[in-house]
Structure formats: C-alpha cells, structure tokens
C-alpha cells in the first residue's frame, strides 16, 4: 500500500513539474467540427434572416382587407411547393428523428422547408423562423457527419449542435439556445442527451458571433421591458401566482391546437388546399386584429409601448391564440415559441389591468415563462432565454414561474415525440 501511494505521489509531482501547455482537446478534430457546425449555422441563419427581412419589407405595404387574399395566395403557393418538393415535417418530426432515428435530420427536406417557411412567415403567419432554422441547420450537422463518416452518438451530437446553433442565432442567447435544443427533445429527462451539451454550447457560441456579424443585430435584450423594482423574496411567490394564469392560457392553446389539428386531419384534401384555407382564416383574423399578424418579434415591443384597454387586450389574446393555432395546424411552416411569448405578455397585461399596482415586469415575464414551459416542456432554457431577451435579470422568479408551467402542464405533451417511441 505504501509503495502504491508513493508511486501515485511521484506521478502527481511529475505532472506538476511539466511546463504549461494548451489543452490538446481544443485542437482536436471533434472540437473543430463543433466550431464548424456553429459557423455554418450562423451563416445559414444570417442569410435566412436577411432574406426574411427583405420579404417582410417587400410585403409590408399590404394592409387592410388586402391581407386576406395575400395570405391565402401565400398559403396556396407554399402548399404547392411542399406538394411538389415533399413535406419537410415540423418540430414533432425533428424531435422524433433525433430521439429514435439516430439523430439523423434529412438535408433533402431543406429546399421545401426554406421556401415554404419564408412565404408563410413573411406574409404574416403567426409562426416564427425557429423551427425552419432548426431543421436546416440541424440537418447540416447531419450532412457534415455523414461526409466525414461519423456515426453513433457523435452524429447525434452534431445534429443537436446544429439545432442549438439555430436556436441561438434567433434568440441571441447561446446558453439558452443550447439548453433549449436539449430540453425540447424530452419532456422528462433532459440529462438523456447530456453528452451533447458541450458540442451544442460550442456551436452556439460560434453561430452567435457569425449571425451578429452578418445581421448587425445588437447583443442587448431583444425587448425593452419595464424596469423591475427592488427584488424581494415575495417576488418568487407572486411569480408562481402569475404563472398559474400563464399555465391556464397554455392549456387553452394546447386544447385549440388539438381540436383544430383533428379537424384538418379529417379533411382528405391536398396540403395546398389546407394551407390556402389556413391562410384565408389567419388573414381574416389579421384584418380585424392587425397586431395578431406575424410572429410577434417586433409586435411584442409595440405591445409594451402603447396603452391598451382591457377589452382590446382580451380580444387580442383570443385573436392571437386562434391565429397561432390555425397557422400551425393548417400546414403553415414555422415555430410558435416567440408567438407564445407574445401571448404570455398579453396575459400579463390583462392581469395588470385586473389587479393594478403590481410589479408589471414581474407579471409579464412570469406569464411568458409559464405558457412557454407548459407548451414546450422546456423550463430551464425558457428561464435563461427570457432573462437574456428581456433584460429581466432576477433569474429566480422566472424559474419559479417556468417550473409552475412545466409541472402543471397536461399529461400528454403537445409535441408528441417528446413522450416516447411512436407505435
């Protein structure tokens, strides 16, 4: 025993006496691949965002009743693209492929996803670019892995790294984007893909830098939220109460999506007909309630800057919930994370009208956290994302509200692939 102890001590001293050197892992092939996935992801996201902004400005002059035929035509054209090039799937398919298909996301789906999603988002659909970017950048990670003959968990990790890079580019939060890419894959065991944490984080940081350089988007908060007063312990308890309201709205959204999804599935008609109908319905909603149009990246700031009556807020809440639900169930491409943040903000403003004199910033961020955690089952990343995007740096109350939405969510998740292996 003494001899073994002496040998270990000698080996330890020899290690201490060695000159300082760089960690060889930094120069390893796999680390450089993570960086490469992030750089490519940032380039793709930056290009996508640039084209999307051009389309938004190009179609922004269409207002009033003309929004209805515009969105109907956009739905029809996007549907014809999907009918011709193939269905690229939605977030459910992405999660299913990562979990049960070895992490392989098919690059062949990208042309249909890019073209259809740009049309859907730019014309005013209530869904954002997060899902299309996740598919495109995640499948790029798969493509790189295949070209280099990488298999197994390393392939899955590169696909997840691509997903994280896409989330980060859109949200501007490397840590939040990384955790979101891991959490959304499973509604119970986030640690199932812990081995992909470092690849996702490295790719996210690379993607973030490239995306900001291309788009010139600032690195501060996305939205200018009201300033929080002096934090107290009671803020966490209030956050739970406000989170209950956000969770209730989350239940309502899930109910609407499931009912509408069944209705559209019953109709044995081509995808372009469903998307035409969806576009006409969402366009009609946007005509009567203009603030419900688009995926709410800019509209949320408008919501914070202007005063609204209780009646207007209630109407906006109903209109936005219906707009998102019809968008995602009629085949229109896009994600619902940022639109749900908008719904959470509207819910918070309604609470502020009903119970004046409370901390508005706390109400808003609590409702936003709860509804998103309820629908997407991502409590940790939601808290990190909101702290980054709103500048609300009191992390603990956001976490309490986010956990409220997560634990009080319906038993069956909206994203079915989060639950388990399909039959």
UniProtKB/TrEMBL annotation:
UniProt subcellular location: Membrane
Pfam families named in the record: Voltage_CLC (PF00654)
Stretches of the chain forming a coiled coil according to its record: none
Keyword Cell membrane: no
Keywords from the named record: Membrane, Transmembrane, Transmembrane helix
InterPro entries: Cl-channel_core (IPR014743), ClC (IPR001807), ClC-type_chloride_channel (IPR050368)
MF annotations from Gene Ontology: chloride transmembrane transporter activity
Annotated Gene Ontology cellular component terms: membrane
Signal peptide: none
The UniProt record lists the keyword Membrane: yes
Transmembrane segments: 30-52, 64-86, 160-185, 197-219, 239-257, 269-288, 308-328, 335-351, 357-376, 383-409
Protein topology in the membrane: Multi-pass membrane protein
Protein's name in the database: Chloride channel protein
């Amino acid at each position: 025993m003494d001899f073994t102890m002496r040998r270990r001590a000698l080996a330890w001293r020899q290690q201490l006496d060695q000159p300082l050197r760089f960690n060889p892992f930094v120069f390893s092939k796999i680390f450089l691949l993570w960086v490469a996935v992030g750089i490519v992801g940032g380039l793709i996201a930056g290009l996508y965002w640039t084209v999307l902004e051009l389309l938004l400005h190009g179609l922004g002059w269409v207002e009033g009743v003309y929004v209805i035929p515009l969105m109907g035509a956009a739905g029809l054209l996007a549907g014809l693209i999907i009918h011709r090039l193939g269905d690229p799937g939605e977030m459910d398919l992405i999660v299913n492929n990562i979990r049960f298909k070895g992490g392989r996301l098919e690059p062949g789906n990208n042309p249909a996803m890019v073209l259809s999603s740009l049309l859907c988002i730019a014309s005013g659909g209530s869904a954002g670019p997060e899902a299309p970017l996740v598919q495109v950048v995640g499948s790029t990670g798969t493509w790189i892995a295949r070209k280099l003959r990488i298999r197994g968990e390393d392939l899955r990790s590169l696909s997840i790294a691509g997903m994280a890079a896409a989330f980060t580019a859109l949200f501007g939060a490397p840590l939040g984007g990384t955790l979101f890419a891991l959490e959304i894959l499973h509604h119970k065991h986030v640690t199932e893909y812990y081995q992909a944490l470092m690849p996702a984080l490295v790719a996210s940081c690379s993607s973030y830098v490239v995306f900001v350089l291309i788009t010139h988007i600032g690195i501060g908060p996305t939205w200018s939220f009201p300033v929080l007063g002096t934090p107290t312990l009671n803020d966490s308890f209030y956050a739970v109460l406000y989170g209950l309201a956000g969770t209730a709205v989350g239940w309502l959204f899930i109910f609407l999506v499931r009912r509408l999804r069944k209705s559209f599935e019953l109709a044995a008609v081509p995808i372009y007909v469903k998307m035409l109908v969806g576009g006409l319905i969402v366009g009609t909603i946007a005509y009567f309630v203009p603030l419900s149009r688009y995926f709410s990246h800019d509209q949320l700031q408008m919501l914070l800057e202007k005063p609204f009556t209780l009646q207007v807020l209630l109407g906006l809440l109903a209109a936005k919930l219906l707009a998102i639900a019809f968008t995602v169930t009629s085949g229109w491409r896009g994600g619902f994370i940022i639109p749900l943040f908008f719904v959470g903000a509207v819910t918070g403003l309604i609470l502020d009208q009903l119970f004046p004199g409370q901390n508005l910033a706390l109400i808003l961020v609590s409702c936003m956290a709860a509804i998103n955690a309820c629908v997407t089952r991502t409590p940790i990343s939601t808290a990190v994302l909101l702290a980054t995007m709103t500048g609300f740096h009191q992390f603990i109350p956001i976490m309490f509200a986010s956990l409220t939405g997560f634990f009080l969510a319906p038993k069956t998740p909206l994203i079915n692939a989060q639950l388990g292996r399909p039959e």
